[in-house]
Fold these 2 entries.
Entry 1:
Amino acid sequence: MARKWLLALLVACFTIVAGCAFAADTIKIGYLAGLTGDFAAFGQAERNAAQLAVDEINAKGGVLGRKLELVPYDFRSRAEDAVNAVRRMIEQDKVVAVVGANSSGINIATAPLVNRGGVPQIGTLSTNPAVTVDEQGKVRPFTFRICFTDPYQGKLIAYFVAKDLKKMKAAILYDVASDYAQGLRQFFVDNYTKYGGSIVADQGFRGGQDVDFRAQLTQIKASGAEVLILPNIGKDLALPMKQARELGMDQIVFVGGDGYGEFMWEIAGKAMENSYWINHLAPEDTALKPFFAAYRKKYNDECKEFANGVLAYDSMYWLADAVKRAGKADPKAIAKALETTRGLKLLHATITIDPATHTPLDKVGVVLVAKEGKSMLFKKIKP
């Protein structure tokens, strides 16, 4: 009897230990987000949306019989913090992949680290080509993006300004310290001049330092520009717009890219009205309604930075699909599965990845117009 009792006890203990071990055997995915600093509004939306996706996937049984575990880090809007965070994810947390950031400069900084470490990273709104392709034009084997790139975005802006707005004299105000801004500026110029447009003013500033843009704006006003191109991010978009209107630049039209954020209304106010923004998706898209409803239910809040939220959410589903197709939670196998993604239906788009650039092929661009305190769909474009 004592022997049977001891055997039963050992079996029970083994079952408890094994169960705990199984529960702890999650698939860890790092998330790189700017939760504080200049990118905070974007980063918080991304982290929340990614966690929402993880919870949904886990509720349906996880991937390969294991639950996903999100391991988020705050890069505090600084490249050095991003590099340290990714190093810790790889070396200490043993993540199988990293999602984020939403910034080209941040992902360019972390690219050498993830490629040396052999751990795939997906950028959400990292549009600079150098994120996934190195200086020699070779694809970085472990770096991917879910968004379109700046060459395409620059073409979309140029096409819209020249063909739809029919504005043929443009000024540019851009952050000289930003990889994103520099790239988008150049790709706009290259395409706009082909459409017959002229650059009548080209002014720079240093993001994160300059807050008074009146000197640059005064020169832009004197140039006779019909449209002001703002290839920047967040508050570096909103402040110049506000100051331009204060200088009496009432007729000039503001056009920018996917650096737009809903929080800009708090800074620029009415100066935002009737400005145009090239983006990856529109909040009115009916396919996105389930996401917004689920986000609202989970966080008792609206996903105001909708592009960041949706692309973070879809990135997690894309990664989960890659892990499933890889058949194992192995970073190298996952990277190969990401690269060979074909016709994957996500919430905002169906994506096929170009193996030469690790970028989705042929994504339709969206033009948003800012009206009555929010952005709304103006039109979809594909030059």
Entry 2:
Amino acid sequence: MTTGAGDLDVDAIVIGAGQAGPGIANHLAATGRQVAVIEADKVGGTCLNRGCRPTKAMRASARVAHLARTAGRHGVRTGDVTVDFPAVMARKDGLIDAWVRNEAAALAHTDGLTLLYGEARFTGRAGPDLVVDVAGRSLRAPQVFLNVGTRATTPPIPGLDDVDWLDNDKVLHLPQLPPRLVILGGSYIGLELGQLFGRLGSAVTVVEHGPQIAGREDPEIAAEIARFLRAEGVEIRTSTTVERVTAAPGGVRLHTAGGGTIDGSHLLVAIGRTPNTDRLDLDRIGLHPDARGYLHTDGVFRTAVDGVWALGDINGRGAFTHTSYQDYEILADHLGGGTRTADGRIPTYAMFTDPPLGRVGMNDAEARASGRHVAKATLPMSAVTRAQLDGETDGLVNILVDTDSERFLGASILGITGDEIVQSISALMHADASWHVLADMLPIHPTVAEFFPTILGRLEPLVDVAT
């Protein structure tokens, strides 16, 4: 039913077609409801368009180049290795463009769904309905689901606005390989992109304000990442404060505290993410994000305003594709009368350097602060037979357990297939199983996972609250 020329009354409005939005829209449509999906840019959100998938496509090309250059270690002679950067980008674009077209077509041809493009903003209420404007068109619905994601944070550095700097989106559309790439920020985005551009042929410098890169990880994990990146030629500068940015011949210049400078042909800023909630005019419906722009929710993603849910990155419950998608699954279960909740969800993620870092649960600092009796086991990847056979021995494994409950508390698996095998521990944590299940299993030889029983045999106290 329409309320005027171009206006639309529906049962639900989904703002943002990232990882959670399309799922919940399809779920609602399957129950017979009329749903409007509003997307400001392209369906698929950050993951598909400017995050996980395009960067992993480029990572794959960079890994092939690296393996070719180092093939001599395996007795394979390749000769000079060159990278066709435009071809790398074309491969990436071909994959991504096909996914975007297919997902957009699926939404556009789903019964009960209306797909609209444009910036969505709340304009207020009309009785029980929330009113949203998109491109001058007024939409009304009693339920609105927000999945608007985040964007790269712009730091208040003097001079930054006077140079052409890159974010995680612009860097994926460069026509030519940057001769010298300076990356401001030594966390996950900066490290992944720094390594892959280095392998593609850029000279790379990573500049981190804090005392270590990968600041949320255990110090020995961060040190190992820094070691193998430096071994590949990536320059890493920690405890470095950038006071201003200026243009320089052929690019940009970073002026650091103490009078130093860092020059590059290109500058990538990767210091964090900012929620896109500031673009929704949420105050029109009495909904107020926190100081950082996040919307607090309960375990099924209800906000402080009835009829409004917040899914994905903006709810602060995990800024990852997999957490956003699970948000949809949990909410769909709840709307169907189920009992699933995000409260108590065990955080798990990966950093896709090569080798990757797989993470689940607590790190050392969090375990110490928990007040539990904690034991830790650690093993260098250089001691793992499969890693030796494959010639990929960079990395380190840390596992934490609660000695009273015999439950896993967390794991950091940096090394070959670390992003995959950490999920064995994640599954046991979600099943509330004893660590003895993994210690007593029959593993396959030769695999990385076969060393779990060996690693767990090395458990030693990390902290003892009784003393």
